[in-house]
Amino acid sequence: xxxxxxxxxxxxxxxxxxxxxxxxxxxxxxxxxxxxxxxxxxxxxxxxxxxxxxxxxxxxxxxxxxxxxxxxxxxxxxxxxxxxxxxxxxxxxxxxxxxxxxxxxxxxxxxxxxxxxxxxxxxxxxxxxxxxxxxxxxxxxxxxxxxxxxx
Length: 151
Hints:
This protein is mainly beta. The chain has helices at about 35-40, 140-150; strands at about 10, 20, 25-30, 45-50, 55-60, 65, 70-75, 85-90, 95, 110-115, 130. It has one domain (about 10-150): glutathione-dependent formaldehyde- activating enzyme (gfa) (Alpha-Beta Complex). It has an 8-stranded mixed sheet with strand order 6-7-8-9-4-3-10-11. Strands 1-2-5 form a 3-stranded antiparallel sheet, with no helix packed on it.
């Protein structure tokens, strides 16, 4: 796994919303939950967990989407409806940014995969760690430390 050259710049599909990350990701993941499958129209969603101070929307504005309520604050481009990032209530130490938004994606590989209980039978990832649900919160510091050592 490589460390991205920061800052990373990117945009939604139509280019109306631009984003930048200026801090190294804390961890990367693929999520197999049915919600991510439906929102991404794919077998799983990809995410880079970025410290909130290291993430910015630098052009345009986003709108809330997904279920639009509850713990998950999914943000989309209001024009092309690209899913750009998610904030999770209660986990304010990172923002889940879709790494495919960035001009350079060569650095991205999922380190963990989550919600494999919902995984499509043919879907595979190169993730080092696999979890049937989400990793226990008490395991996150250890996983993040291991992720940091791999870069």
